[in-house]
Structures are given as C-alpha cells and as structure tokens.
Amino acid sequence: MKNPSQETLEAWRTNPKYWKWGLFYYNKEDDRLLVDKPNPNYGATLNFAHKKSYLFFIGMLVFFGLVILSILLSQ
Predict the structure, then answer these.
(1) Does the pLDDT at position 30 exceed 80?
(2) Is 27 helix (H, G, I), strand (E, B) or coil?
(3) Is the C-alpha dihedral spanning 41, 62, 23, 48 positive or negative?
C-alpha cells in the first residue's frame, strides 16, 4: 500500500498480529522500514517484512562489532 492513511498506520502499529513474540514487527502491506513500537515512547523498530531491514540490521551489527573490536585492540 503506497499511501496508507494515518488511521491505517496506527491500526497496523497497534495490532498484535503484526508483532511476532511482541518484539518483531512483520507486515508485508507496510512499506516503511522503521516503525514506531506499540508504545512510541520506547522508540522504533524494523519492519522485518521489508527486504532492506535485514541489510540494515546486519549493517548495524557490523558497525557496532567494528567499534567494539577497535576498542579492544586499542587497549
């Protein structure tokens, strides 16, 4: 869905059927990569139905792994 209404986005965000184990958002209809958590005060998460979310997640892991590695090697 290209331009869903604000009500549709809110319904998707709060619907438990789109949350796997209450942690992972998975909605093939939603084109957004980052989605607010059911309680927006807790930040955002990735839409794991989006193909680029896995690349983004792996990129974050590699980045933080390199930061930790550089800290360990500088000691």
Answers:
(1) yes
(2) coil
(3) positive
